Fold each of these.
Amino acid sequence: MIERTDPWIPESYHIVKTWREIPDTFTMELKPTDGREIPRFASGQFNMLYVFGVGEIPVSISGDPSQRGILTHTTRAVGAVSRALCDLKEGAVVGVRGPYGSHWPVAEAMGKDVVIAAGGLGLAPLRSAVREIVAARERFGKVSVLYGARTVEDILFRRELEGWRARFDLDVYVTVDHADAAWRGSVGVVTRFVARAAFNPEQVVAMVCGPEVMMRYTARELEKCGVVDDAIYLSMERNMKCAVGLCGHCQFQQFFVCKDGPVFAYHRVKSLLAKGEI
Amino acid sequence: MDGEAILEYTDLSQLLSVLHGYGYTVIGPTLRDGAIVYDEVETLADFPVGYTDVQDAGTYRVARRTDDAVFGYTVGPHSYKQFLHPAVVSLWEATRTDGEMTIRTTPAPGAKYAFLGARSCELHALAVQDRVLYQGAYPDPVYAAVRESLFIVAVNCAHAGGTCFCVSMGTGPHATSGFDLSLTEVQGEGAHYFVVEVGSERGGEIFRQVPHRAANADESAAAERVVAEVAGQMGRTLDTDDLRDMLYRNLEHPRWEEIERRCLSCGNCTLVCPTCFCTTVNDVTDLSGQHAERVRTWDSCFTADFSYIHGGSVRASVRSRYRQWMTHKLASWIDQFGTAGCVGCGRCVTWCPVGIDITEEVRGIRLTDGALSGQP
Ligand SMILES: Cc1cc2nc3c(=O)[nH]c(=O)nc-3n(C[C@H](O)[C@H](O)[C@H](O)COP(=O)(O)OP(=O)(O)OC[C@H]3O[C@@H](n4cnc5c(N)ncnc54)[C@H](O)[C@@H]3O)c2cc1C
Ligand code: SF4
Ligand code: SF4
Ligand code: FES
C-alpha cells in the first residue's frame, strides 16, 4: 500500500508563553515538542489547534512569518474549545495541524499603498501582515492601519498599535463603538476612516478582516473611494472541521473557505456576500 | 479473454466462491426489513431473487416478480459510501503522559471488499467520491484503504426505477467503465444467463476460474436490447442544459421559500445520497483523561450546527439549507470537482418523507427563471 501522511493527525506543541491581551483574549507562543522549526507559513494562514480531549478549532497565526522558532496565536474565549485553549498554562501540550489556506497579498502590495482595516479580533491575522510590511517598510507606499473595537477595553495589541502610531511611516486610526468620557480617541465605526486615509486608489491594496458586515461596509467604502474590487482582500470565517477540503463544513457556494480562502479577493465573493445565508 | 462471455444463472454462486477464495468480503443486495439493502452475501440464496422494488417520491415497496431475476430491482436506501466512507469511524487515538502527547492513526479494519451488483449510477457515484475524498491534495486515509483493494462486479439495469434519472445525468443505465466485471441478466424461453464483460486484468483472472462459455451474436444482442429498453423507461428526467448557471442566477428565487414550507430539514436526502460526503468530528476522552480519540461521523448540511459559527448558524433558514444542498449537487460541485454531484439515482426523491423531488424543484425554478423573492 502507498505510504501517505494522515491529514487528520495533529503535531504536538508546547505552550512556551501565554498571556491575556484583553479580558477574554489570549496570545500564546508555541514550539514543537520535538524541537523542530515551525512549518513555513504566510500572513493570513491558519492552523487547527487541538486541546486534548476537548476539540479542535481554526485559529489564524498572529505572529511574524519570518520567525521560524515560534508559533503565535491569539484566541478569544467564546466557547468550549477556545475557552479550554485560553485556560491552558505554560508547559501544556497542544495539537497543531497546518498551516492551511490562502494568505494576504503582501508581495502583490509591494510598490503600492496599503490599507489595513480590522474590526475586533480581525486584527490578529492582520498583525502578521503589518509586521511583514513594517519589516520591509521601504518597499511599500503609504501604509494606513484602521482599527475598530467595541470598547476601549477591547482594543487588542494596544501597546503594539501605539508603537505603530509612533512611527512616522504608518498612519494608524483607532476607533471604538462605545466609550466613556475618559477616552479621548474616536468613537464610531471604522469604515468612516476609509475616506480619510491617504492612498492612491489606483495604486493600493486593501486587506480587511473583521465581522462579515464590517468587511462588507469597508469594501463598499473603499469602492466609493475609487478602489477596484480586485484590489480589496478579505478573510472569511466559516465552520471548519477538517481544514483540508474533506468535511464540507466551510463551503461558501463554490468555494471551500479552508482551501480556496480564508483570504479572498473581494470581486470573487462580492455577489455571494450580498445574498446572505450562503 | 476476448469478447463477451456467458455465465449461466446456476453458476453465479461459482463467482461468489471464487471471490471468497481470493479473500474478498462480498457485498451484494439482500432483502432485509422490507427493503433491498447492501450487506455481506455468502450464496445466491442471500440475493433477492424474484423480487423487485416499486419507487416513487416518498414511497418504496418491495414486490414479487413473476420470474427469477436476480437483479430485477434498482437501488435501495443503502449505497457503497457506508463501506468506503463509514457513517462512524475512529480517525486517531492519543495518549498523554507527563505533558507529552502521542497521536496515532486508528488501525483500519483492513476489509477487502468485492461489490457484486453495482449499477452504473453507483459506479459514477464512486468516481465522484474518488474526486472528493481520494484524488485531492489530502486523500482521506480511511477511504483510500478500502478503495485500493476494491473489486467491482457491475450489473446493467434490466429495469428502471420510478425515481431514476441516470439518462439525464449521463451516468447510466449502461455501465461502461470502472468495473472489473460487468453482468447483463437475460431471461426468456427457458434461458437464464448473464452476458459478462471483463473490465480489468484482475477481472479476467477471477473470471477464468468461473465456468463460462463464449457468447454468440444473439446473446450479445439480447443484452444490448435489455440496456436500450431501460434507457427509455426512466421514471424521472432532469434538463441539465445550462443547469449550473441557471441555479447560480436563481439563488433568490421564490421557489426556495416554497420548498421551505414542505421540507422538514431531516437530512434523509443527504444520508441516502451516494455522493454526499460531509462529516463532523467528535473529540472524546476516557475517564482517566489520558486517552483521547477523534471519531468522525456523517453530517448533514440540513442541521443547524453544520454552519454554526460563534453567534449563530450561517444558514439559519431551511430554505437556505435546501438551496445549499441542491445547488451544491447540481452547480457548485461542477466548479469544485469538475463533475456534478448528482448521479440521478433517485434515492433522495424516494426517501424524502414528504416526497420532495429534486427534478421537480429544478423544473419549478427553470419555469420562472429570474423570478425574485421578496425576502432578503
Ligand atoms: C480561518 C479562521 C480563522 C480564525 N482565526 C481566529 C483567531 O485568530 N482567533 C480566534 O479567537 N478565533 C478565530 N477563529 C474563530 C474560531 O475558530 C472560533 O471562535 C472557534 O471555532 C469557536 O469554537 P468553540 O468551541 O470555542 O466555540 P463554540 O461556540 O462552542 O463552537 C462550537 C463549534 O462550532 C464551530 N465554530 C464556532 N464558532 C466558529 C467560528 N467563528 N469560526 C469557525 N467555526 C466556528 C467550531 O467547530 C466549534 O468547535 C477563526 C475561524 C476561522 C474559520
Ligand atoms: S442528489 Fe438524489 S438523485 Fe442525485 S445522486 Fe444524490 S440521492 Fe441520487
Ligand atoms: S428534502 Fe426531504 S429528505 Fe431532504 S431534508 Fe427536506 S424533508 Fe428531509
Ligand atoms: S473545513 Fe472541512 S472542507 Fe473546509
Amino acid sequence: MRPLRKGVIMSEDIIVLQQLSKCFVSEQGQVQALQAINLSIRKGEIFGIIGRSGAGKSTLVRCINLLERPSEGRVIVDGQELTALSPAQLRKQRHGIGMIFQGFHLLMQKTALQNVCFPLLITGVPRGEAEKRASALLDEVGLSDKKNAYPAQLSGGQMQRVAIARALATNPKVLLCDEATSALDPETTQSILDLLREINRRHGITIVVITHEMRVVEEICHRVAELKDGLLLRVGSVEEVLGDPSHQTVERLTIGLPQDEETALRVRCYLLSEGVLFEEEGAAIGRSV
Amino acid sequence: MAALFDPKLLQLFLIGLGETAAMTLASTGISYLLGLPLGLLLVLTDRDGIMPKPSLSRALGMVINCIRSLPFIILLVVVMPVTRAITGTTVGSKAMLVPLVIAATPYIARVVEGSIREIDAGVIEAAQAMGASPLQIVLRVMLPEAGPSLLIGATVATTTILGYSALSGIVGGGGLGAIAINYGYYRRTTDIMMVAVVLLVLLVQLVQEFGGRIARRSDRRLT
Ligand SMILES: Nc1ncnc2c1ncn2[C@@H]1O[C@H](COP(=O)(O)OP(=O)(O)O)[C@@H](O)[C@H]1O
Ligand SMILES: [Mg+2]
C-alpha cells in the first residue's frame, strides 16, 4: 500500500515490469521489440495497452507470463519475480495467470467442458471435481447449453467465452487478453467486453487488455499505456492518454474511418481531455455529430 | 483356373495371407513403439519446439534421412548380419521383422513429425501459458489434437509396410509376396501370382478404407 493523493490509498501493484527489454535476433537481423519498459499495474484494475500493429503490444503481454523471455529486465507478478524462477516454479506461477488470445486457441478435439477442465486436470484436480467447476464456469460465461459442443460447432464469440472460462478455471489473479476481441464483430466484441468487465467486478481479477482498437480501451479500461516502436509513450487514465490533444494514436486510429465517425472520435477525445464529459456523454455526443 | 480351387492351393493362400497380415501388423506395431517417440522428439527438440535442442534434432534428422535414403531391397541385404544375430536366421517372416522395423521406424518418425507439426502453435502456447509441463503437453495436447492425422498417417504407414513385406519375399521372407515371386517369377505360374497380387491389392484397399473411415469419424473439427 502506498498513499497516492490525499485521502486516496492505492492498492498494491500486482504486475511490475522493470527495465524490460526484448530484442528478437533472427537471420534477417535484430528487432528491438521492447525498450526499457517500466510499468506497474495495480491490483484489481483493467489496464489497457494500446498502439498500432508492430508496436510491441503482444511481446509486452507475453513477457508478463514469460511466454516470451525478456532479453533484459525483471517481471514481478503478485510479489514473485518470474524472471528468477526455475521452469517448474514458473509453471506453478502460471496457474495464477490466465490468458486469452485473438485466435482463441482451444483444443479442437475436445468439448467446451473438456477444454475448461484442462487447466484443472493439469494441476491435479480430480476429474469429477474439475467437471463440476468447469460446468459452473460455463454457466457463468453464458454457455450452459454448449457444454458438450466442440469448438468447430461454436461461433467466434462462443469460442472466446470458452477460452475465458478456461482461463478463469484455476482462479487466477491476473487475466491477460491479447487482442481478444479483434477477430469478433462489433456486437460480439461488446458482449465479450461486458463479460470481462463483469468478471473484473465480481472476482476482483486484474485484467490486462492489449488492443489496437480505441473503443475497447474507452469501453472498459481504467488506465491505459500507449506503446510505440517498443517504447512506452505514456501511462495514465483513459482520459489523460486518449484525450491528449497532441495524441498521435488518435490520428492513427482515425485513419480509414468514415468522415462522420472520425469527427465524432475527435470531438469525443477533445471533450474527454478537457474534462467536460464523462464517457457515456462523450459517446452520446459522438453519435449526434 | 480350376486348379486354383485345389484345397492345397487354397491353404497356401490362406497361410500366405496370414503371414503377410502378421508380418505387417507386428512390424508396424513395433515400428510405432519406436517411431512415435522419435517423431515427437524431432518436434520437441526443434529450434522452435517446447524443449529446444537444435543439435539433437538435427543429428536425429540426419540419421533418419540416411536410413530412409537406402532402397528397401538394399537394406534387406545390408542388415542380414543383424537379422541373423537377433533371430538366428535370415529367412522366413519372423526374420523379416528386423529389416522391416529398421526401414519403417524412420519413415514413421517422419509421418508422426508431420502430424504433430500440423497442430496450431497457438494451442500449444495456450497450454504453456496455463502452466502445462512438456510431458503434459505431449500427452494431453499434442497426441489428442493430432489424433485423426496420426490415424491417417498410421493407415498410410501400414500400407507402405505391407508393400515392404511383400518385397521381402525376394530374399526369403514369407507371405503373399513370397508366393507371388516364387510361383510367378521363378515357376512362371502366372495365375497363382495374379491371385497373390489381387489379395495384396485387396488388403491395401481394406486397410486404407478402414483407417480413413476411423480417422474421419474421430475428427471433431469436421461437423
Ligand atoms: N518471434 C519473433 N521473432 C522476430 N521478431 C518478432 C517476433 N515476435 C515479434 N517480433 C517483432 O517485434 C515487433 C513487435 O511485435 P508485436 O509485439 O507482435 O507487436 P503488436 O502486438 O503490437 O502488433 C514487430 O516488429 C515484430 O515483427
Ligand atoms: Mg499483437
